[in-house]
Amino acid sequence: MILIADSGSTKCAWALCNNKGEIINEYKTIGFNPFFINQENILNHLKKSELRLIKEKVKNLIFYGAGCSSQEKKNIIQESLNTFFKKSNIIIQEDIYAACYATYKNQPNITCILGTGSNSCYYDGKKIKKKAPSLGFLLGDECSGNYFGKKILRLYLNHKLPKELETKFKLNHEDDWNVIKNNIYNNNRANVYLSKYFPFISSNKNHPLIQEIIYKALNEFFTLHICCYQKYKNVEINFVGSVAYHLSKEIKDVIRKNNCKFGRIVKDPIKELVKFHSKENIKDS
């Protein structure tokens, strides 16, 4: 059996399939980003998951993960999976590879991730080229879920939201500063916590203030992470992730305004990854 995993910081989707590209079952766990979770916690989550029922059957495991950009961080995931999936041949790749493989349509493109975090690259079908580094949720992650979470919390806590938005916020989201502060500053998954406020953005995106926040963030992302590529006006621009999915109209507006080519948006890449790997003829060992 072949197991393919697509992990962000918030959640990880797993697809068990055969070598014909047929999905046998799908699983969900929390996201395993090695910047925010250690080997012990990864193993604890795996042992509690339904993956424990199939771990002896998996011959090949391909794991795409946020935060797996260096060998040091890959090793955290590798060693955890080696311990749990003892009979598996395991490959670890950064999540940007999953985004590229899930959206590629036989032409060079720019591929972007807008989920809990954000990232981009130029993909020619063989190689990935990055220009702007992914700086994480403290310095970067422009237009990501945690980025919007910080924006809306800052406005709410400083009493800068219009009354109608403030009322909606109180009804649907944690608004106690002491609780929020604890979840941000005493939490090794603060980026995931901040992303929980993104639904407020997406559900109120017709409000003028929220529209201003969204378009400002998208323009910032476009300037930093798309315009940095020399051929950005000549290739399609693709997006992966839940934030991209919920802001699809706004993304198309910004791309059209900049006279660029829109490609596609894929909310959850896992099924496209299974198709990609079935074409690559990955076989059971």
Short synopsis of the structure:
The chain has 285 residues and is of the alpha/beta class. The protein is built from 13 helices and ten strands.
Structure description:
The structure is a single chain. This protein is 44% helix and 20% strand. It is an alpha/beta fold and 285 residues long. It has two domains: 2-100 and 269-279, ATPase, nucleotide binding domain (Nucleotidyltransferase, domain 5, 2-Layer Sandwich); 106-266, Nucleotidyltransferase, domain 5, CATH 3.30.420. The protein has a five-stranded mixed β-sheet with strand order 3-2-1-4-5, with helices on both faces. A hairpin with a 3-residue loop joins β1 and β2 (11-17). The longest helix is centred in the C-terminal third of the chain and has 18 residues, at 208-225. The radius of gyration is 19 Å and the shape is globular.
Strand content: 15-25%
* Rounded Rg: 19 Å
Give the CATH level 1 class of the largest domain.
Alpha Beta
The CATH topology of the largest domain comes to Nucleotidyltransferase, domain 5
Main sheet record: 5 strands, mixed
Show unreliable segments: none
Overall pLDDT metric: 90
- Give the beta-strand count: 10
Silhouette: globular
Order of helices and strands: EEEHEHEHEEEHHHHHHHEHHEH
Strand order, largest beta sheet: 3-2-1-4-5
**Relative helix content:** 40-55%
Distance between the first and last residues' Cα: 9 Å
Helix/strand/pairing category: alpha/beta
CATH architecture annotation of the largest domain: 2-Layer Sandwich
Query: At the fourth CATH level, what is the homologous superfamily of the largest domain?
Result: ATPase, nucleotide binding domain
Number of domains: 2
Instruction: State the helix count.
Output: 13
